[in-house]
Amino acid sequence: VQQNLSDFELVLVQKNKLANSSSRYENSADPIRVNDGVTSAYMIHTADGDPMPWVMLDMDQPHAVFGARVWNRLDNSWYKRFTQISFGVTNNPAVWTSFNSHLFQLCFYYTDVPTVADNPIKVNCSKPIVGRYFAIYKNITGLSSSQQYINIFEIDILAMAKGASLCVSSAQSSFPAASSALLTRWSGLKSPRLDCIFKCTAQPACLFALVIPGNGDCLLFGPSGGLAGFIGGSCFRCVAVLE
Predict the structure, then answer these.
(1) Cystine design at 110: which of 65, 69, 85, 118 (Cβ 3.0–4.6 Å)?
(2) For residue 132, is pLDDT > 60?
């Protein structure tokens, strides 16, 4: 399954992956249901008193994760519980046996209070992150006891397609991870991967560059929220998406 996002195709990571959660509310669904393709029948619900609710997926192998979609609970205003949620990715296998939020790279921090119309909730990582393990985890600080849960039905993980070439700059932001946005697209480059890095270096707002397989087009991405707190960088780490 492929999805179009920001004018290039992403792959929906294959379903029915192993899943786990921090806790389980009485009679709620097994965590594996969070990735079975069913978006409204089996609710994953963390338990009372959970100090950091989380749900984690093992994607079997590393993927260059670009974003995710979450099907939220919609009844009785409980959809409002989906807030102060971090989306993280890591390649460290230690998290599977002992969850540690500090071992995840932050893809996105969701602080909105969603409505029914926001279902599914969609996020793009500030930068694509290569890793095998994907998790959402909740900061319960300042939330009432009735809001300190994760209750969702399904997670889709969106990753870059096989053959893409990704170059991520050393640029950092002083604000929590936010969405990335397409800045510009270049076609007809003689040396797409190298020239794409140069294009990104010359663009003050560029966070990462993506070379599309087949046509060799170069896509440059930057922070969607503008340049406040943005510090540019000219050092790049490149990976080829093999799977």
Answers:
(1) 85
(2) yes
